[in-house]
Every structure is written in structure tokens, then in C-alpha cells.
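Pipeline run #58 for the internal structure catalog. This entry was flagged by the ingest filter as a single-chain record with no existing model, so it goes straight to prediction. Upstream metadata was stripped on purpose; only the residue string is passed forward. Reviewer on rotation: M.T. Logging verbosity set to normal.
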Amino acid sequence: MKFIFKTPTLQKLKSYYLLFALLLLLTQGCKEKNEEISSQADLPEKEVYTVLIGGTKVGHLNVDRAGDTVAIDYDYKDNGRGPTIKETIVLNAEGFPVQWDIAGNTTFGNSIDEHFKLDVKTASWTDATGDGTATMELPSFYVNQSGSPYSLFMTARVLLKSKDQTVTALPAGQLKLTQLETLETGADSLKLNLKTYALSGTDLDPTYFILDEKDQFFAVITSRFIIIRSGYESEEKGLRLLAEKYSAERYQDMQKRFAHKYEKNVRIRNVRIFDPKTLALTDLASVVISGDKILSIDAADAAAGENEIEIDGAGGTLVAGLYDMHGHMGEDDALMNVLAGVTSVRDMGNNNEVMDSLIQKIKTGVLVGPNITRLGFIEGKSPFNSNNGILVESEAEALAAVQTYADKGFYGIKLYNSMNGEWAPAIVKKAHDLKMPVTGHVPAFSNANDMLMAGFDEMTHINQIMLGWVLEPGEDTRTLLRLTALQRLPDLDLNSAPVQKTLNLMVKNNVAMDPTLAIHELLLLSRNGETQARTLDYIENMPASVQRDAKMAMASIANDTEDKAYRGAYDKIVETLKMMKARGILILPGTDLGGAFNLHRELELYQQLGYTPAELLKLGSYDMAQYLGQNDRGAIEPGMLADFFLIPNDPTKDLKTLKKISMVSRGGVLYFPSELYPEFGIKPFTEKPVVKGN
């Protein structure tokens, strides 16, 4: 960094003393300025990091530094997709960015063209949401929308020198750094002393990362995804477990503070109950919980038993807990789902070790989470494979994987994109012999009809079926083509023989459909600068960073022609699902978006298929319980598991009222969203009901 010092013009110095004094002041000034920039000068010119997912190297993050300018090359690919990002950042003496240029594409192909500039106190930026400006009275750190995780390090360097380790964020909010612990890693010449940190203020959950003893960047850690300094890749598994530990500790703390587990029976008075068998609300009643079960349904004015806790439902509605039939569960998803009334989730593939731990913590009450039904994820090894579940290279290995999942008590099997489609008949037979249903993606170079004839019990993602009607032989769906090729759907004749053959096979074989319509809405209809339709009912209650991200498209929309094609593709998908519903094909409400509010949206979208709100409440609770053979839930009746939620309005008239849940019972343990949402920076949607006797 170059500094230019301007001194007053000296007319005539009358003594050497004055000249010496002036030179001394200038020297001291230079020394102070050099001390200011030492925080940048002591950093290496080149840094190399490895991106790992589930222990597999999938990409890189490379950093080149020249004075005050940092250049970043970030790229990884998992499951045939991932971001490609180039960044150039200019930092001032305090480490704040004064210029930041980001280019490339996001995971699903949306183009990145983001810029930030600081001119004295005026900050200006352009991102996917549009242009923004701010006048800064205090130093503020710009939080990029689409940059690489290396920005965590630059943020940390500033926060370490800031009062209380906090700083104002741009475009909005506040960043806070918290040191967690110190640890050692490596051996011999690679041995390092490390410090772990949590950065809050950029999302609903903190981000965990690590610096070395010189406060230089070492790693970003999550329970699945790691970016780590080159040469230390062998430490990856331990760091994943460390990230899991930090996340668990946060949620365990919330469980201790906000889970209401009463020793007494709990009576919820003055409520109507949604009856899935009549599709109507009952008269006012009171519901009594004992332990984790529903003890009785009594009259609204029934006398209270001895030592009961009473909750005033205020004339609201009780609804049995909902199901997300397409989840990939993590600790953050677990809590957010319960608060949204989603008390059961079907996990469609995960890191098996992480899931083992999570399920155990939920069962023992250490963490709050939904009931989880697990499908065993089997994927073929390829340059495009996903790094979940069990990866196989032969039919024999795939059959062994089925047996492994059966031995561990998994409910069913899910196959994925890189699986050899020719192995599907043998895999399905093996699974069926073990009483396990099979679902999944259509493997590359196969089509839906192949999987239906192989014996699939259901189909996953509506695009996986419809691509078989528009792709050419040899086109590879292991890449983003499985999304971009949807532009061809508007010209598809749904009455054509290929379409009808597939639908006939589904009807004949009693095959269900897991369409994940909400993710297709996001993919096909979201546009840069426009708030996504799926978020409109709740976005104003969310933190500023989430509001900002809700104005970003998922896919790249290059021109008006593509815009029209994608919108037409969504319409064609809805039309196809209408046909499926009319043919009696069971639609399974799943999101692949984390559930919670997205599950609400999935159900709302099904109104386009001809369902009423009452039918959708039944579909999302009772019908899914029956489908999975879970006869102890899905309705509010004596003897049933106490999984239900309370809302102040009538959801049979308007599903949007699902956002206003005031209480959730998960196995008899009560949670009040108004207490928990502020922990994530979310403004509560409704007040906590009145509780007496606790």
C-alpha cells in the first residue's frame, strides 16, 4: 500500500533545529503508518486451500496477494454442480475492503457480477438484488452476496482489532466474532496451534472457522463441507466432527433454555381440532397430553385434573404435525422444522455418521428435532458423483450397500444420478426382498420408464421424469443439464405417446410422485432483484441478510427467450402434476429445501393442482403417516403421539396461516416459536399462548 504525505511548504527555515524537528516528525509519522499496514504485510503472498465434501477433494480456493490487493480463485464441483468465482479485493490500512469485484457463477449457474466501492465515507455496491449506497459514520464491513468463504478471514482480521469484536455490516446488520477454543493439529514440521471462532451476523446460524497462531487463515468448517490449508487434508474428519460439536452445543443450549417438558399433564383448552378424516374442524375442545402421548380429548369446559398445566388456545386450531418427505437433515434444519410444525421428516440421503449422531441426540432429548425416517443413499462413483451415503463401482457393491442399510434398520433405498441404470432391477429386487421400498433420481443415460419397469416404488423430483420426454440419447443429466434442459418443456405435448406411457406405468405399478415443486418454482421463476414468491409471507420477519438473498435468482436467465422458456416450463410441470393427480397418483409433499417454511410453500403450491387447504393438511400429515406405516401419528386422537401445533386461525380456509404457529408439541415437549425465533434474528409471527400452573 502506498501512502503520500503532504507537508506545508517551508519558506525559509531560520534554524537547523526547526529542520531537524520537522524531519523527526515525518520519520515518526512514517513509522506509525508502517505499523498500521503491518497487519497486511505479514500475510503470505500465496495461499492454497483444498475444498473437501464428505472427505473427498472437490475443489480449491487459491489466494494471491500483492500489497493491499487480494486475488481469489474459488471453484468446486459436487454432484455435477458448484460455484466458479474470481474475486479481486483492495483493502485499506485497517483491513476493510475499499474495492471488491466478484465474477463467475453460483452453484446452479446464476451469473455473478458483484461490485463494491468505498469512497471516503460513501459506500456503493451492485449485487444480484440491484444497486445500493450508504453513508458510513462508523467503519463498516461489506458482506458480499456471492463471494468465496475467504471473506470470513478478512472479516475476522478486522473484528480481532475491533472493540468487543463487533463491527457494523453493510448492507445491514452487525458482525460479531467469538473465540471458541484453542487446539493443536498436524505433526512435526506441520504442527500448528490453532484458534477456532464463530462469526455471527451473516446468516441465521454462525459460521465456524479456524485461524493459526499468527492469525492467518487455516480452515472453514461445517459438518459436511471443509475448506482447509493445503497439506492438512488428513485433519478433515476431525474438523467436521468439531463443527458438528459446535453446532450441537448451540442447539443443546437452546434446548435447555426453551424446551418446556412438564412433569404434570398438559391441558390445552379452548381449541378446535383439525380432523383429517372429515376434513373439518371440531367444536371447541380441550386436549390433554400425558408424557409423549395424547391422553384424552375433552369438552372445552371440562374440569382440570390435579396439578395440570393449562394452556389457553384462545379459540385457535390444533393440527397434527406435518411431514417433509424430502429432507437432508441437519441440526439447524431439525429445530426450524419443529418450530414450523414439521414434526416428521424423511431423510433422503446424508452423511451417515452425522445422521447417526443427530438421531441419537434427538431421541435422548439433547436436541430438538423431528421424527426421522431414513432412506439409504447409494451413488455410483464418477467425476460427477454426489458425496453422500455409500459410493459403489459395481452391481455387487450396490447390492452389498442395500444389505448394509437393511442391517442398520433404514426404511428404504434411494438411488442417484451416477448409478448405472442397468443395475437398478437387481437392486430393487434385493431391496424388495428385504421389505425396503426404492426411489431416487433417474440414473444418467436412463429414463423414468426404465426405472418404473425396474420396480421403483416412487419417483423423485418431477424434472427427473419429464427430462426423459425431451432429452436426446446420450445427453448427460449428471450435470446442470438436468435443470437447464427444462427450457425444452414448453413445446412438450402432454398427450403424446411417450408421456402417456410413463403415466400409465405409474398408475399400473401404483408408483407415488415426490415432485419437490417448491424447488422448481425457485429454479424456474426466481429472478435477480425480485423477492422470491415463496418468501413473501414471511420475508419481512427475517434478518436483513436473508431478505437480501431472497432477491437472488437460482439459475442463470440469459435473455427474454430463456425467461419465457423457464416460465413456460413451470406451467408445464404444474399441468403434468395435475394430470398425475387426476390419474390417482399419490403426490408426496417434500421440499429438498430444508423443509420448515418451504414445506408450507410446497403445500400451498399444490392448490394449483386442485387440492383444497383441508385436503392438503390431511395430505401433509395423516396421509404421509399412513404411507410410511406410522400409525401412531398424523391425527390428534387419544393414544397418538403428541406431535401437533397450535395456530390462531383456521388453516382449512387459508394455508398461509401456517406461518403463525404459536406452540408446537413434539412428543409432549412444548416449544413456543416466539421464544426461539429471536435467537436467529427472526421477528416472531405471533405471541406465546398463556400458560398457567407451571
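catalog note: DSSP finds 17 helices and 33 strands in the chain.
catalog note: Residues 43-257 form one domain.
status: ready for reviewer M.T.
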